[in-house]
Amino acid sequence: MTMKKFINNPDNITAELLEGLALANPSILEVTDHNLIINKGLATADRVTIVTIGGAGHEPALEGFVGEGMIDISVVGDIFAAPGYKAVVEALKLADKGKGVLLVVLNHAGDMLAGDRTMKEVEKLGLNVIKVVTQEDIANAPRSDAANRRGLVGCVPLYKICGAAAAQGKSLTEVAALAQDFADNMATIAVACKTATHPQNGASFADLGEDEMEVGMGQHGEGGGGRQKMASADETAVIMADALLNDLDLKAGEEVMVIVNGTGATTIMEMLLVFRRVHKYLSEKGIKIVASWVEEVLTVQEQAGFQLFFARMDPEKLAFWEAPAKTPYLSR
Amino acid sequence: MPLEPLKIKTMLLTAAREIADHVDILTDLDCALGDGDHGTTMKKLTQVMFDQIEPWNETTNLKDGLESLTDALEDVSGGSAGPLFAAFVYGMAEAAESDAPTTDDFIRQILLGAYDEFFTTSKAVIGDKTMMDAIAPATEVIRNSTTDMKTTLEEAARAARSGSDNTAGMLAKYGRARYIGDRCLGHKDPGSVTFAYFYEGLATGYFV
Q1: How far apart are alpha carbons A118 and A306 in whole angstroms?
Q2: N or C: fewer beta carbons within 10 Å in chain B?
Q3: What is the value of pTM for the model shown?
Q4: Does residue A12 belong to the interface with chain B, where contact is any CB pair within 8 Å?
Q5: Is B35–A198 a contact, with Cβ atoms under 8 angstroms apart?
Q6: Cα separation of A59 and A62, whole Å?
Q7: In this predicted model, what pLDDT tens digit does every residue of B190-208 receive, in sequence order?
Q8: For residue B1, is it within any domain?
Q9: Which positions of A are catalytic?
């Protein structure tokens, strides 16, 4: 299996990319043992703090959003793999500044096992931690069966909104309630037209045909939804927007955030075409886009495709979304 | 019948070697169903087993040794296979009597304990297209066997392999394979294949 990637020893990718991230952003974050990426502002923080966990290989997410106003510690696993729970417990201990910690876990098998195991230790140690799970992928299960919904790009705006709430002095109970409310009102659907390569072993995940796309592609290139003939940007935007509108039951007059998240090998050009159509489509339906982001946020190596994300917004969440933040890949 | 004290060491090392020798197959299987990292994960986990178990000697308390092994396995960033494999080994440690002589009963006890802890953590049952499809049939053989340990382990290994082969016809209920629906048919669950190698290694290691 050959692969054309600029890497060194495949076993060292995670450590090397984290070192690179820290060296590139020395005023914002640092990397420590157990692959913890820590917000330098944590040292003097007197507020609720935000910790998250997840595998590497999805850059800039998750660790690229560590910094003031978003994530305080990102516990990074190896490529696509959840971290061990002991690193998570260590992160929670470091993060607790006396006001409690929000632990954000994306619904993926390994992350959930690590999260559950961590919470057992949290109880033993008497730490003040509330865990919130993001599970907004609509591709595989109805809203009523959230346990079978994966966590996709939705965790990132959630970090932003909760980070801002924490910075403004909200209590852990308030931040966690906000996180849950945001999570309950968000939805993502993904599409892929070319699959990715695992950077440690060169393996391709799936075998999409030349003229095919797959709606419902997961976070790691694992398949998920319907394979269909490749469609235009406009057609694909409408297929996906309809699915999200239906899932969220959005009505005329409501306000939403829209994210078009490139998964690695789709150009900003294509993503802008998609966003354009989504914007017009929602406008026709009387739904107002109050926040938008067209960017590579949470990628899957060189997978071609994107995730379309909608979240129901209110003035409080919008203010938190627009509040200041200073991280390597989101600053305002 | 008391065995030589380091029988368990040989069995576990042989089991780890059996898995480590087949990581490429595990990777290929996982590419068909999941995100392609199962082979990489098992390479890391078996390396931990080699590092931890190699130093065991006649004076090693196996319960302590298995506990340290669990601890080291839990440090690995290994997706879901990591904590599940660690749970299996933790079950062995829990079931091991401290300073017990290594007898056939001891082997039986720790392998039954491994199943219990694995079930508690995974909540998987036969038919879910997981590691359990290899572990449960092997455990049943070990639990019910009335014959000698060599034959028991060989039968357990055959049961694990056949259970793993059966996963090709199953729809997945856990892990990433569950998201691809009936396209997972025809592909064996990579975790179950890992445990087929594991039990085969135990049987070979017992005989060595």
Answers
A1: 32
A2: N
A3: 0.87
A4: no
A5: yes
A6: 7
A7: 999 999 999 999 999 998 7
A8: no
A9: 58, 220
